[in-house]
Amino acid sequence: DMAEPIQQLTRNNNPQERQSIPFTLIQRKEKLGDLLYEKRHYGKAKWACIKMKEKQYEQSICLGFMKLMRYICEQNSSGLYLGITVPIVTIVHTNEAQSAMTQAVTVAYYLPEVLQDEPPHPFDSDIIIEEWPATIVYSR
């Protein structure tokens, strides 16, 4: 089932073709020459997102990622390979009291700059295009 997307990804697996999500570095914290974290500002952008809810959240992440890979590798209204952006983001959800993780996760793919204005529509109705507001992220 994943043979075609994996072949497409392999054909296009040139590190120079991977687009990092643009951000502005606000702060960088190091200790003894090792990076502890970076504080980054990410601008408003469109993401292809899928919410999964399997018995184990690891399964949800894997299945969500595979569905996004199909979208990236031609199962979209453009019929084209969209290109890889890094990182692919996983959001783990918590219960209403924020005291425990739920089984639901969201796996999200940043749409490359050239697709931000008019993202291709996914064939998979579970994938939705969302516009995320600007945010501050701490990254390691």
TrEMBL record:
Pfam families tied to this protein: SOUL (PF04832)
Domain of life from the UniProt record: Eukaryota
Transmembrane segments: none
MF terms (GO), sorted A to Z: heme binding
Family (UniProt): Belongs to the HEBP family.
Alphabetical list of PANTHER family matching this protein: HEME-BINDING PROTEIN-RELATED, SOUL PROTEIN
Name under which the protein is recorded: HEBP2 protein
Organism: Sinosuthora webbiana
Upper classification of the organism: Eukaryota, Metazoa, Chordata, Craniata, Vertebrata
